[in-house]
């Protein structure tokens, strides 16, 4: 019996085990199982453990704080928060701006998606690139750009001689201004979900309707739009949750006019009073989290009413020929891009060249001093560049290195546990950023058990939140990469005798590398432009670019803020453009800014 | 020793039995084809042998080692087998030499020996000059040969081939068929070849296992399979055999009998051991049917369609006694018959299906 184990064909336990006592056989079995356990199950356990710590632990801690503040069961904090009129004012404002912003985003995003996805307009890639760009620029920078396009100090209006009188109120400091900028910022989200769905809409469904005698307009109304209901609802839910959780836009446009929404209320409470108010802030963030969850649940329940399943997607639909309407459509699209992208960015660039707020810009007064100041003279800004680059790059690399083995299990080893893991990774990205930030503060305020190190007030708490929140951004492209991969490539290396670590290293990593790189870039761009998390988590020495930008703007130094904003836009756009060089090797839809 | 033994293997997907009590033995050095229509379970069986899936009952043994039972499972990477995949599964980011040498790297074989064995494997498939190419730059046949070299370089005791010719065009297929046969002769490796193409299976295999709905219907040499199919399904599947009802079966020798086919007495073959008598089903081949002069006794039938097949015609006919049981046969060019004509057919040979007899007498 023992000689059998010498061959390479050793089973994990031998059939003759029955002859030995059961205890010995269990022991033998365990010993024999170890190599396999080590490769597969140990890795899987480790991956699931990390997901639990990143995605579940902080929110569990937050819920615990809401129910039992400071460790004792009490409803005091909840009662106090719910009794405060400010809470309900902010909630009302949040709902109003989120619904308004979503409505605008849906109208604009849907129109552009239908034009790009269904018609034969020219320059499709350029349209997509420009239209999606606001999504990849920091919301607070977009908000400043819009502020500088209107108000009395707008260099653009001044050059045109159309600036309102000094001291008059900028029209964007209002609910309407917040809604406008939110709508512009998140229209690309609706666009992207619809565009992805239109890509998989089978040509036959449209051709069958055309063959049945329906004109294109009728096909759009009776076939395309009904089938696009699920992605449209998904886009609506996504943009509602994003609008609700956005901090940068209401912070820049709402705080000066004392128009407070839930994320800014949480920020003000925490910034003004410190961690002492954590219990109250925890209740507030649970309130906003609950509204977000309600939005998602509403979307799900609407989807369940009808069957939208599309059978066997084949060749993607062929574009409709617009003929006479093609040029007007193209002009309309580029005008839209001019208004939502070019105009605000021009205003931002002009502001960054102004020597001081209020001075009118001309060839004589234009200066690069603002750039010099934020790049070289201002200590916090210099630190912020290092911090933001470091945090974003670390988050991108760590997440992708983690996502590659995780996606291996998610795609190729389906099980109930893994389906749950897949859902759980979405949570930190789905909840508003302030919720995650508050949860992380609660989790890390006290020193970590066993090691005794405190993460609160260090750069590490920001990194933790970046890893938790942006995990799903890296995981999705990697999963898409696996779906594109022929599984027999892995099986062939398994047959050649390679164990899982070697298969990952020699076969899988090289083949999913392009999509993984795209995911890493998406994470980098998002983290680099991020403010919501770091606004609540930063401390002296761990400022991010978003935080420094925000403090410039709060201190009235719009020109410095603009210069910093221009620099971040340049970095983002340069990275986006650089990826277009390798775009052909990626599955469609991985790079949001490429059609 | 690389005998492959599959014993009462069962694999269920929910209620569906993808493998239903499959038993099969492949002797050392034997070339066995597993033949069946798509969805018959042949790929499921291959994945069980390779170890990609675990069985619900039964066992798989390679040589003396049990590799698969519901309770114990040797992972594929430790089974020391080779597979040629239908898609070839060549790694696009590696050169031909890196593809072929991968298994040696894994086994820890170091360089001069490694290079030498890679070159020998490439020489065996006549791809010596291609070591540094990328798979994307190769033709279908060349990729196929790289896949073959990669699978054989580690000298596996058992090689599985999963429809390796399905992606090649017709001309290349014949050439690759010869290559596989030559290859098997030279290396003496035990091979299991999955296919849905019976011509391929007949040309290559020592024995063929015909599969349908998760069961092995018959395991036999190509000639036995053609001449003595086990039941209706095998008879119809192999060589498009005609299955006709026969009556008054009476043994008149060790393995011969006479029987009534559509009212016409015919001499045919039968299983020496089977209890026969009364009614049964028989398998007829198109080359055993012959148009004869109307005065000669035979089966009267009406021509239903005529299709030209190059030098000969294929005729379909409905017997007058049973129009629902179609017959077909060949006639050499020129042919004066037209659809609707009546003909008399002589039947020179037939085979009483033992499967049918067994089931009928068991009632």
In short:
The complex is a heterodimer of chains A (595) and B (363). Chain A is mostly helical. In chain A, 71% of the residues lie in helices and 0% in strands.
Explain this structure:
Chain A has 595 residues and is mainly alpha-helical. Chain A has 2 domains: 40-61 and 369-595, MetI-like fold (Orthogonal Bundle), CATH 1.10.3720; 84-313 and 323-348, Orthogonal Bundle (MetI-like fold), CATH 1.10.3720.10. Chain A is built from 25 helices and no strands. Mean pLDDT of chain A is 83; it is low at 1-37. Chain B has 2 domains: 4-227, P-loop containing nucleotide triphosphate hydrolases (Rossmann fold), CATH 3.40.50.300; 232-361, Beta Barrel (OB fold (Dihydrolipoamide Acetyltransferase, E2P)). With 363 residues, chain B is α+β, with helices and mostly antiparallel strands. In chain B, helix 2 (96-106) packs across helix 3 (111-124). Mean pLDDT of chain B is 88; it is low at 357-363. In chain B, strand 16 and strand 17 form a beta hairpin. Helix content of chain B is 25%, strand content 35%. Chain B is elongated. Classes of the chains: A mainly alpha (595), B alpha+beta (363). At the A-B interface, helix 21 and helix 22 of A face strand 5, strand 6 and helix 2 of B.
Percent strand of chain A: under 5%
What is the largest interface, and how many residues per chain?
A-B, 28 and 37 residues
Q: Based on CA inertia axes, which overall geometry of chain A fits?
A: globular
In CATH, the architecture of the largest domain in chain B is: 3-Layer(aba) Sandwich
Please give a handful of descriptors for the protein shown:
heterodimer; A: 595 residues; mainly alpha; MetI-like fold; 2 domains; 25 helices; 0% strand; B: 363 residues; alpha+beta; OB fold (Dihydrolipoamide Acetyltransferase, E2P); 6-stranded mixed sheet; 5-stranded antiparallel sheet; elongated; disordered C terminus
């Amino acid at each position: 019996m023992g000689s059998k184990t010498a061959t390479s064909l050793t089973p994990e336990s031998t059939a003759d085990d029955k002859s030995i006592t059961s205890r010995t056989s269990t022991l033998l079995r365990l010993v024999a199982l170890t190599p396999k356990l080590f490769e597969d199950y140990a890795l899987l356990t480790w991956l699931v453990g990390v997901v639990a710590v990143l995605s579940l632990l902080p929110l569990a801690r937050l819920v615990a704080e809401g129910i039992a503040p400071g460790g004792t069961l009490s409803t005091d904090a909840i009662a106090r928060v719910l009794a405060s009129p400010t809470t309900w004012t902010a909630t009302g404002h949040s709902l109003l701006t989120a619904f308004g912003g979503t409505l605008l985003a849906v109208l604009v995003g849907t129109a552009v998606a239908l034009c790009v996805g269904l018609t034969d307009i020219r320059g499709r890639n350029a349209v997509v690139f420009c239209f999606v760009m606001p999504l990849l620029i920091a919301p607070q920078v977009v908000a400043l750009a819009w502020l500088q396009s209107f108000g009395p100090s707008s260099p653009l209006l001044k050059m045109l001689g159309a600036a309102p009188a000094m001291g008059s109120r900028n029209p964007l400091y209002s609910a309407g201004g917040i809604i406008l900028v939110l709508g512009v910022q998140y229209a690309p989200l609706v666009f992207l979900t619809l565009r992805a769905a239109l890509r998989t809409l089978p040509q036959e469904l449209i051709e069958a309707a055309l063959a049945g005698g329906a004109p294109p307009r009728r096909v759009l109304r009776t076939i395309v739009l009904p089938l696009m209901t699920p992605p449209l609802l998904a886009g609506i839910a996504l943009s509602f949750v994003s609008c609700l959780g956005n901090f940068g836009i209401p912070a820049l446009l709402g705080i000066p006019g004392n128009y407070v929404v839930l994320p800014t209320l949480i920020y003000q409470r925490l910034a003004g009073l410190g961690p002492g108010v954590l219990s109250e802030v925890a209740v507030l963030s649970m309130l906003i989290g609950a509204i977000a969850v309600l939005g998602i649940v509403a979307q799900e329940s609407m989807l369940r009413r009808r069957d939208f399943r599309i059978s066997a997607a084949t060749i993607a639909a062929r574009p409709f020929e617009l003929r006479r309407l093609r040029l007007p459509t193209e002009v309309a699209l580029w005008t839209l891009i001019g208004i939502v992208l070019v105009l605000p960015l021009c205003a931002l660039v002009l502001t960054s060249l102004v020597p001081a707020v209020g001075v009118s810009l001309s060839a004589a007064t234009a200066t690069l001093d603002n750039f010099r100041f934020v790049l070289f003279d201002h200590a916090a800004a210099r630190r912020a560049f290092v911090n933001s680059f470091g945090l974003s790059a670390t988050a991108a690399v760590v997440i992708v290195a983690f996502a590659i083995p995780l996606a291996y299990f998610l795609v190729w080893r389906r099980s109930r546990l893994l389906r749950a893991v897949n859902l759980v990774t979405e949570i930190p990205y789905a909840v508003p950023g302030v919720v995650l930030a508050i949860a992380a503060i609660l989790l890390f305020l006290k020193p970590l058990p066993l090691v005794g190190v405190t993460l609160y007030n260090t750069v590490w708490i920001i990194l933790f939140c970046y890893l938790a929140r942006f995990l799903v951004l890296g995981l999705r492209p990697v999963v898409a990469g696996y779906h594109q991969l022929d599984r027999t490539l892995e099986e062939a290396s398994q047959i050649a005798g390679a164990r899982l670590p070697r298969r990952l290293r020699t076969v899988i990593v090289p083949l999913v590398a392009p999509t993984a790189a795209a995911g890493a870039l998406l994470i980098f761009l998002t983290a680099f432009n991020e403010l919501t998390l770091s606004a609540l988590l930063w401390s002296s020495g761990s400022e991010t670019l978003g935080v420094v930008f925000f403090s410039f703007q709060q201190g009235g130094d719009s020109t410095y803020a603009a210069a910093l904003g221009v620099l971040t836009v340049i970095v983002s756009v340069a990275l986006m453009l650089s990826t277009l060089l390798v775009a052909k090797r990626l599955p469609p839809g991985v790079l949001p800014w490429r059609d | 020793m690389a005998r492959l033994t599959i014993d009462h293997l069962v694999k269920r997907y929910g209620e569906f039995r993808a493998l239903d009590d499959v038993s099969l033995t492949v002797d050392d050095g034997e070339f066995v084809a597993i033949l069946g229509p798509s969805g018959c379970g042949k790929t499921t069986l291959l994945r069980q042998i390779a170890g990609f899936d675990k069985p619900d009952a039964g066992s798989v043994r390679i040589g003396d080692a049990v590799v698969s039972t519901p309770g114990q499972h040797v992972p594929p990477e430790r089974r020391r087998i080779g597979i040629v995949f239908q898609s070839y599964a060549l790694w696009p980011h590696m050169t031909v030499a890196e593809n072929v040498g991968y298994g040696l790297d894994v086994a820890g074989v170091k360089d001069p020996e490694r290079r030498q064995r890679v070159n020998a494997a490439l020489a065996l498939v006549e791809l010596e000059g291609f070591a540094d190419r990328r798979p994307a730059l190769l033709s279908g046949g060349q990729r196929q040969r790289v896949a073959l070299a990669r699978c054989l370089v580690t000298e596996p005791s058992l090689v599985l081939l999963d429809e390796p010719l399905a992606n090649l065009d017709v001309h290349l297929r014949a050439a690759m068929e010869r290559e596989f046969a030559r290859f098997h002769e030279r290396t003496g490796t035990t091979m299991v070849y999955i296919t849905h193409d019976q011509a391929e299976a007949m040309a290559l295999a020592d024995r063929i296992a015909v599969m349908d709905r998760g069961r092995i219907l018959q395991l036999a040499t190509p000639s036995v399979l053609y001449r003595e199919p086990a039941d209706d399904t095998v008879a119809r599947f192999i060589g498009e055999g005609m299955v006709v009802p026969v009556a008054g079966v009476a043994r008149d020798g060790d393995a011969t009998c006479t029987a009534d086919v559509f009212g016409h007495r015919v001499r045919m073959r039968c299983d020496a051991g089977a209890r026969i008598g009364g009614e049964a089903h028989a398998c007829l081949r198109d080359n055993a049917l012959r148009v004869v002069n109307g005065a000669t006794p035979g089966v009267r039938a009406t021509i239903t369609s005529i299709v030209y097949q190059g030098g000969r015609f294929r005729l379909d006919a409905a017997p007058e006694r049973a129009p629902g049981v179609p017959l077909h046969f060949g006639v050499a060019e020129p042919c004066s018959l037209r659809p609707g004509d009546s003909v008399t057919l002589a039947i020179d040979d037939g085979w009483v299906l033992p499967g049918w007899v067994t089931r009928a007498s068991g009632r």
